[in-house]
Amino acid sequence: MQRCLELAAIAAAEGESPVGSVVVKDGVILGEAAEKSRQLKDISRHAEALAVLEAVKRHGSCAGATIYSNAEPCILCSYMIRHHRIVEVVFSKYTGELGGAGSRYHILTADDISSWGPPPVVTIYP
């Protein structure tokens, strides 16, 4: 989580939302990113999405990995997390009505989406 906070500080210094994300499997960082939506003028460039894309590009997959973020992944990022079969999501704060776990659009925790298999374990970092 410390690395997420470092990445979030970088994002904030660049005028972005202060979000950082890291994908880890077997103690190895597969991908990491800071928020880049404003800088790249692309709403899909959230920290979690970029970290997943980097993990897939560098390692071919992030199935079975854990993703850390200092903020609850949104609906878009939650879809990516489920699609890439990440098994655990750890975040430090809920983000409100568009969050993938705490909102009414609970894509991260929905257990009735059979094409993705079981939902990841969701842990709130203290």
From TrEMBL:
<dbReference type="InterPro" id="IPR002125">
    <property type="entry name" value="CMP_dCMP_dom"/>
</dbReference>
<dbReference type="InterPro" id="IPR016192">
    <property type="entry name" value="APOBEC/CMP_deaminase_Zn-bd"/>
</dbReference>
<protein>
    <submittedName>
        <fullName>Nucleoside deaminase</fullName>
    </submittedName>
</protein>
<keyword id="KW-0479">Metal-binding</keyword>
<dbReference type="InterPro" id="IPR016193">
    <property type="entry name" value="Cytidine_deaminase-like"/>
</dbReference>
<keyword id="KW-0862">Zinc</keyword>
<dbReference type="GO" id="GO:0016787">
    <property type="term" value="F:hydrolase activity"/>
</dbReference>
<feature type="domain" description="CMP/dCMP-type deaminase">
    <location>
        <begin position="1"/>
        <end position="105"/>
    </location>
</feature>
<dbReference type="Pfam" id="PF00383">
    <property type="entry name" value="dCMP_cyt_deam_1"/>
</dbReference>
<dbReference type="GO" id="GO:0008270">
    <property type="term" value="F:zinc ion binding"/>
</dbReference>
